[in-house]
Amino acid sequence: MTTNKAELEIIKQLFQNLNADDKKLFLKSIKEKEQINEKLNFTRNLTNCPHCHSKHLKKNGTKNGKQRYICLDCHKTFANTNNTIFYGVKKDLSVWQKYIHCMVEKYSLRKTAEICGISLPTAFAWRHKILDTLQKMMNEVKLDGIVEADETFMTISFKGNHKNFKLPRLAKQRGSANTKRGLSKELVCIPCVINLNRKSIAKISNLGKPNLVALQKVLNGKIQKDSVFVTDSLRGYLKLSNDMELNHIRIPRNKHSNGSFNIQMINSYHSILKAMLIYTFKGVSTKYLNNYLVYHNFVNFAKEIRSDKEQILFKHITSANCISKSINVANRPAVPLLVA
Ligand SMILES: [Zn+2]
User: Fold this and answer.
1) pLDDT per position as a tens digit, 7-32
2) Number of domains into which the chain is organized
3) Residues 65, 26: one domain?
4) Do 174 and 285 fall into the same domain?
């Protein structure tokens, strides 16, 4: 008997010993695994050139099990993993699955690298490739119902930037928590909105206190008409609320609530965000802060249970068009502002 046959025999015997429910569970898990593997085989057929979008393609042999194509117009060759997160990556999909588990558990890069058997730089690159695609998914989010809004501030951090990198201003070791007092231009402003359904939006807008344009850049079109919009007395929210046709509830200055409305949930949203950035990840570079904001929105705040989040994220990265290759993950502005 060959090893394979012997193994198969053992599995068969073990299977017979299972009770009916466990048999069903086992078969279900096998089936799910197969479906995932199918997706990971990149059997997708390309119809357009990823470089010039021409439809004149010809198959051009295979490499590492992946179909390659040549474009008859621009003459470039490419695999069918082009424009996916897996482009140029030889690791098995099961490694990505493990990686996503580590992400949802918020493990450090070091621990993640160990568990997945990948290098630290790879662990770093994958984190931001995945978060870049998550960013695209979160861009589609729209809030309704009771929506709480408030901005938060983080110290600019150049952590982890390359040694040759010229600091635009004094480097800070860590992105630390800051209160609204002392609103210097050393702070990035992050307008945030959340709703009772645990959907959320947060993005760096500007330095220091936000004006109307900064709030608009992050929030315009992101809240459904007629939602209840609960904010503090910052002026910008008034106009924003009118423009988006929301029911505005303003909490007066030095008050914590207006009737039964308050912004307690968004305050805790800010606390959990800062705890993750400062204690879990030991401070993050402002360059990558927008990615950590969607990380927080998805992992800490969204209402799905962890195992569902793993599935959602895995499904998303295997289907999303992802053009950020490891080589340019670091190639983004040190302080990404929507409003200068
Ligand atoms: Zn082409």
Assistant:
1) 888 888 888 888 999 888 888 887 76
2) 3
3) no
4) yes
